[in-house]
Design a protein that fits this description.
The structure is a homodimer. Chain A has about 240 residues and is an alpha+beta fold. The first copy, chain A, has helices spanning about 15-25, 45-50, 80-90, 95-120, 135-160, 175-190, 195-200, 205-215, 215-225, and strands at about 5, 30, 65-70, 75. In chain A, β1, α1 and β2 form a beta-alpha-beta unit. The longest helix of chain A has 29 residues, at about 135-160. Chain A starts with a strand and ends in a 21-residue tail after the last helix.
């Protein structure tokens, strides 16, 4: 039996970091909420699973999507899902040192993802962007001018210091962190086309990594497929021109 | 040789989640930046370590403190440090299912910690609170009214669903997530005395867990020692009465 991924069907969101790993790992998986409800899919199926209605007695409830179901295990938190999948999909090194370093990078990617989200939702996650536009303008400016250069500069430094000189973040092989960093930069380019190109001009190793990940045969096939949802203004990375510059 | 913890010496901050685990685990450790500089301590020593100046060729640079040094390994990101320490200090179960669940809870605690921080820094982390007070008032209100009840309600549900019925988050024994949840609630009580008591009135299992963790002999001894830094307005949890209510 394959993996079940549960995530909102209309956005890339945090689910996309898991989708990329499943795709690159050649995993057998179902993106449950995107399946027809007559086949046991849809948002209702995801919500029932998350609430425990359709789970076992010893169900451990995730706080929010995405979550992965693997047999009896229900696993939430994006970075935690990747920690679990990494060894199974061959997307992390075998030593504890490599695994803990890959996870550290992943958690730092997660920090940037949240900060990118908060540029359009600096006050209240459940309110509309339109209700927090002045605050969003301020937060987005700080993100463009201070946070994005600091974070992307750190990824550049990590790539420069990889003794394997492979163009990957850790060792020689593609890890889930490489895939996630691709997704982060892809999202930043969508949301902040001007600011991200300005910062990326100073991070050539990062720019090369993103290009190389996009050309991995399985990733390229996925990106060209209808499984890849387009960026849009319900997701984490939103193109509001007034927040770029 | 013991562990080295590197963190800002004037605050509990994120370092406190690691300190509590090291204390409960009875670990041999040095809190480097709090040691005198003539003994190789101080902030300068931490910064030199983080920059790689005092590390080896293959040094892997953490993005920010806290980080843990264990021999040749340098490990950043609070939840990642606890993932590493958990099995070594006997603060996590032995099965992969328990470990991945404990880590999932820890990552959710980390999410609340960041949101608590952002109540006083909703716009720019490097600016002063005084420069973002109107926005902080709005964000704190959403945190008190929506986010805190949602998160604390989830922890209550996790405790209620633990089939061991132990009052711990996972299984029968104390885990690093129990210690971190204690610290989170302690911080919320400091920063938001009114709002947190209102929410905690509806989460009796969580309230009991916090009391029980505070009474663990090693934790109680630590809290009464001078190693425990007092809460203050440079840390994550800050008592600004205008943000409570």
């Amino acid at each position: 039996m394959g993996y079940e991924l549960h995530y909102w069907p209309m956005i890339q969101g945090r689910g996309e970091f898991v989708r990329l790993a499943l795709e690159q790992g050649g995993a057998d998986y179902v993106d449950v909420a995107r399946e027809p409800s007559e086949d046991g899919g849809g948002i209702d199926a995801m919500v029932a699973r998350m609430s425990g209605e359709s789970g076992s007695e010893n169900f451990r409830p995730p706080f929010a999507p995405p979550f992965l179901v693997d047999g009896d295990l229900v696993i939430g938190q994006t970075a935690n899902i990747l920690l679990y999948l990494g060894p199974r999909l061959g997307l992390v090194g075998t030593s504890e040192a490599d695994r803990i370093w890959t996870h550290q990078i992943q958690l730092t990617i997660a920090d940037v993802v949240l900060e990118a989200h908060d540029t359009h939702h600096p006050i209240a996650v459940m309110d509309y962007y339109e209700e927090q536009r002045p605050e969003a303008a301020k937060r987005a400016r700080d993100f463009r001018e201070n946070r994005m250069p600091k974070y992307l500069g750190w990824f550049e430094r990590v790539l420069a210091r990889n003794p394997a000189g492979s163009g990957r973040l850790v060792g020689d092989a593609v890890s889930y962190a490489d895939l996630s960093l691709f997704q982060l930069v892809d999202g930043l380019r969508y949301a902040f086309p001007k600011a991200s190109e300005r910062v990326l001009a100073g991070t050539p190793r990062l720019t090369a990594l993103v290009q190389n990940v996009g050309r991995l045969p399985r990733i390229a096939a996925y990106l060209a497929s209808e499984r890849r949802i387009a960026f849009n203004e319900q997701g984490i990375f939103r193109r509001y021109p007034e927040l770029d510059g």
